[in-house]
Amino acid sequence: SMKLPLSGCSFECYKEVEIKSCCPGYWGPDCIGQYRHTSSSSKSQKGFAGTACEDCAPGRYSPTCSSVCSCVHGLCASGIVGDGRCTCFSGYTGPNCDQELPECAALSCQQNSRCIEEALTGQLVCQCLPGYQRAGAKCLSINPCLQRVCHAQASCVHTGPNQHLCTCNEGYSGDGRVCMAIDPCQTDRGGCAAESARCVYDGPGRSHCECLSGFDTLSGGGCSLKNSCTPDSCHRNANCSTVGPGQVECACLQGYIGNGKVCIGNIMERLNDLNTEPGGQWTGQLRSLSWPLQNLGPFTVFIPINKGFKGTPVRTLIADRSKATYLCKMHLVAGMMQFDTLKKTDVFYTLTGKSAETDTSEGDAQTKIRIHGGRKKGVIIQSNVVASNGIIHIINRLMESVPPIVESNTEVARLKDFSLGKTPLASLLDQPGPITVLAPTTAAFDAMIEEHLKYLMSPDGHSKLLEFLRNHIIPATALEIYNAVSTPRYVTMANQVLTITGQILVNGAAVLEAAVEAKNGRLYVMDGVLTPPSIEPVLPSRCDITETKIIMGECVACSKLLCTLQLNGHGTHFSKTGQFTSCWNRKTLKPRRCNFVEAVRITSCISVQIPACCKGFYGPDCRPCPGGYQTPCSGHGQCSEGVSRNGTCSCEPNFSGSRCQYCSSSNKYGPNCDRTCPCIHGQCDNRPDSDGRCKVDSCQQGYTGPLCDRQTAACGAQAQFCHAHADCDFSQGTVKCICKTGFQGDGITCVASDPCAPPHRGGCSLNAKCIKTGPGTHVCQCLTGWREDGDECQPINNCNSPDRGGCHPNATCVYVGPGQVRTLISAETPSVTVSLFNCLCVQASCLLLSSQWTCVCDEGYVGNGHVCYGTVEQVSDGQVQSAGSCLCFQLTLFPGDFRKILQKQHPASFFVPITDFSLFFFFFFFFKVLVPDRTLSEGLLATLALRPEFSLFRSYLIDYNLTNDIEQADEFTIFAPTDAAVTEYLKKMATTRYHVVASQRLLKTDLQLGGYKETMLGFSFQLGIFPRDGKLFVNDAQMNSSDILSGKGVIHGLSAVLQINRNRCDDLTYTKVMGNCVDCLFHQNKICPNDTIPDKSVRRTRKCMFTRTFEGEWLPRVGCRATCLQKKIERRCCAGFFGEHCEACPGPKGRPCFDNGVCVDGTNGTGVCRCNEGFNGTACETCQSGKYGVHCDQECECKNGQCNEGLKGDGTCECDVDWRGVHCDQTDEQCGSVRCHGSANCVTGSSGPQCICAAGFKGNGTFCQAIDPCVVDNGGCSLYALCKRTRPGRRDCVCNAGYAGDGLVCVEINPCLKGNGGCHANADCIHVGPNKTSCVCREFYTGDGKNCNIIDLCQKNNGGCHRNARCNMTGPGTQSCTCRQNFIGDGVTCKGTVARVSS
Questions:
Q1: Where are the alpha helices (DSSP H) in 1278-1355?
Q2: Whole-model pTM?
Q3: Residues 970-988: tens digit of each pLDDT
């Protein structure tokens, strides 16, 4: 190897290196945190101290804190601005105060004394330190307790030199210097219930409770109301409860209605009462028929009197049970139809499905009914006989029976034997049963969309046909019509819910014949079909597009044309002829010459299948748009349809919902959502297809009816039910319903009077419209283009406005009418651009496909729409036709000279002049449409779909429509939690369990009074039910739907997710108690008492003795006693919460008393804030008067002015009139020739004298006006306070009625904090608003909350005890069961002894 030196070059190179460095105030490898003066955790340099290293350490000084103080007996000038000088104590000298004066050293001062110079003589003497006094040669600590410094009822403790502490004795309160005797009766009545006891003072800190008259003293010390109920107090079918001393309350039993004094039973009981009432109008005139109407309903019954059966012997009638039942159904109608409603109803439907009519042509007294198809008419001779499950109308004759479409036959006929025509349902009618078949007629099938029926009957539609037929069968029940109308929701074999409504409509299809009896079930004949949603859409949803493309093949030798060519996977076969023009494809293609000699290039025609959805479908699998494919978005919006779309509905104005199925306003309805709901005292059904009636079960208490417009309390003896806007009037001698002011009608129906009705139109001007604002009230509003001028409306000239009617500066504004202008454009007008949508295509058409404009080749041409080709002859001649894409035109206004420039710069453009010189259209033709590149969101979803462990995360992306936002970025990174992680997180959140109240089925009526309910999380996590302004709130969420029944439970809808209220910190402990003495092996009684559980940690049991009867004798036996655990919960509130229900203390959430004081919290607390020194206010939210600063520790020094005080104040002064200076302590000066306002002061500055408005005034000094602080932000007062101006610039804040506080913070007055808010001792007081309460009896008590009685469990079903046992109440909600003599057992189960059995 050889090394040769060679000359070369070296280059200077640079490498870019990134050096990691944090910005000031950030630290660590990840540069986290930011420097804050109050919370920085920065490390101080040597010599510095403080949270932010802002000061020197003790004993150091200089700007660098590097110098150390050397003072020994003195004070050092330390700190960043200090110079280290020493200020010596008396008796010391020297630069470092380390030299003791010789005179002091000679004195040799004793302990607790020091050398000091006397002020008068200047001599050095030994004096005792502060807090000490001389006793001979010593200095002893001064004890103030040796003198009488504390109150006589207080004790004194010596705590240090001349220091002491006074503490009041037990039973007294005060600061120790003054002690007052505590009277417990002055605070919460000494714990005595205000309604049942009085407090008696026994001495300082001592009292007892004595029961009032009408109350009994209980063994536990409480007072119980004496039972005042007698057998004659209430109706025999009502419960009696004592609600006060000598006062009782009656409530009808379940299944009865009335006021308790009179209780009305069901229809059958009511008929029996009418028929047997001594001396009654209908005594003995109503036959007793056994109809199953006791527990079902509600029904309307037309009862004929006995004379009405004339010509129809009852024996003959009841001989054929089936016909008798059918005739009875002819007299029954589902629901309650009062006489007034019946008169207004032309047609109604009986339970057979047959229709009937009402004839009122002869007046109310001769109102008649007739079954369609019958000739007889029955006159209603008495109406509105109310029963608990319906209403009775007595008629004078029996309605004749109209033959049914299908006769019942329970002996032989099966459902398949009924002749229903040729229907697809016939094959399913032969099931063994019991089943209920909803059979459409042949006409119903003929009315189906022809394509639907053909598809279902085809082999491709077999699976959907089976599902379709299964939706017409209700399995495992022979459904009677009585049950159908009483429980109107049933599930079919297709697992779909069917709803049966008043006219007997099944999902909208009318029942022509109801409950036809057969051996294997019941048949309902219907005039419509029931298509289940699971097979929608019935027709296939894909509309794929087949597109033909022309491609060029490879250049090959002509000799190879004898072989089969594969062009992009498509076989195109040719046979060699003289012109090479013959091929085996459907279209004849001519070979083209190419570069090789004796070679040819083949042009091939291929077809491509492009996935596409039919109209009304979206997504890769072409699912139906929300609202259905026939009416996407319910016909009130635009569906994002197509393969690449997500099916989201863009609702039109006035509509909302996932499928635009609701009106955006909760008080609107109708096809255009522009009608105001007539629902009065309920929640409006705000759907476009509703009739404006109230939602089911949404009526407020006391109202009923479809519009919640009828009162539930009857008016007068005739049982009239007044309208919601009517009162029951007794003043005219006769009781009747009268509409309220602002409404008109007969009292049964009241409508709001319209003050805007013509011809007066509310007295509004001709150029104004009258707007109704409420019943009998209105406002006048000028029309567009007019302005208000008193009671008149004057035209508006927009050309006089600052923007000149919106005209261009180079245009002339011409007034043509009120609020209207016309623009005249000059020749110098700049360009204006306006968008106009259209498209340009050649040999193609622009069509709207899948919600987007697409170019499609015309007939006779093939291609993708952007390029279209003709026949082979046209192609060979080079006649390739091109087509433009769909374009968005821009209409542009240009000045005249600019047209030439445009033509030169845009040769592919042309313009068309219009007759009006002021406007030109310029159309730009582009041969390529600029379409933004859009990445389909399905890419992310498809990837996640391949990973099942991310299914929950993927569903959340879809639910919250996040995929589009994510994929709009060029790149993205997702940290996806697994399903297990999401599930575990939701378990820890425990939010769902907080929404469930177990062991109670609470309907809306049970919640009307409010209360607190324990959730599945336990007692410490309660829900508060609060009635406010006619609405119910759960915590802070409003109930917007209610009473959704679900098996054994009920569901109520909320407007928000409930946030767990962590206000209780209860303490749970267990106490060991001994169990019952039972047989060690065969114990029949409970081994542990009620409310206790066995202690599993203790395995051994203790021996005991018990007795058992044998042959009538009591014999002692050895038994066992277990160790049990009794749970005890000590109710406690968390810090910052107070009262029995642990309400929040005043102040922001998480900051009681604004952290400027201590709240008197706890279950016995009052919620009062005890502010720290310097702070003041209801929630310690401000400073005391005359103080300012964040700690309220700075004193204002304004002498004659207003100080900028408070937490945000800086202590500056605004001087009163005639005062000036920093502290407003200098008299005013004259400003020479400058004349100041009477409310201004003259202040001399560097620029000379100047006038400044005094405190409470604003202006330039020569003019000042008083400041009204209430104008801006209510003067800083609370939202629940009234701001009152007192002096210029000053105000007082006064809390509104129902609120208490300093005005800056106003809290709702809670009457529950005193005397339980007037509620009974066994009731919960619910704070429902400002100074408002609701009383609810606690569990195991009944009453109205003001009076609560213990529920006697033994009165119902013997308290759950055996029939041979005695039930004894032992306390609220608890009872004991004891077997009677000659029976043994635990009371729940009792068995006879040998002696009992032998006897």
A1: none
A2: 0.34
A3: 777 777 788 887 777 776 6
